[in-house]
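Q: Predict the bound structure with zinc ion.
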Amino acid sequence: MSVATIGIQGQCAHCGCTCVLEAWQLNAIAINESFACTHCHKALQLIDPKQIKRFKSLDSLAMLRASTLVMVCTAVLVALVMEWIGMLSVVEQVNFSLVAILVYFLVIQFARHRQHLTLILEAAKAHAD
Ligand SMILES: [Zn+2]
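A: Predicted complex:
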C-alpha cells in the first residue's frame, strides 16, 4: 500500500463505528473483496460506486505528490546551476527556489486535504459462488 492511503477511515454498516482502515483492509477494498470490521468483526464491503471512485482517486494523488517532488527538485537544481554559470544572481536563485518549495507545500496540503476521507462501508453481500 502506498503512503497516500494511510489515515483513511471507514464507517461500519453494522456497528456504526468509524475506524482507521488498516493496510490489509485497504487491499481488500482495492480488489473489491469483503473484509471484517476491526470493531465488530462483521463482513463489510465498499459497494457505492461514488465511494469506490473516491478511493481510486487516491492513487492519482500519490502520483501528483511524487511528480511534484521531482519537478521541485529539478527546478531547484536548475536554479543552482543557473546561479553557478552566472545567469541568475544569488537573490534570484534563492527567490526561485523558495517559490518552487512553496508550490510543493501547497500541493502537499491539497493532497492531504483530499485524502482526508471517510468511506461509508456497506454490509458485504453473500457471494453467489
Ligand atoms: Zn463494525
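A: The chain has one domain: 3-123.
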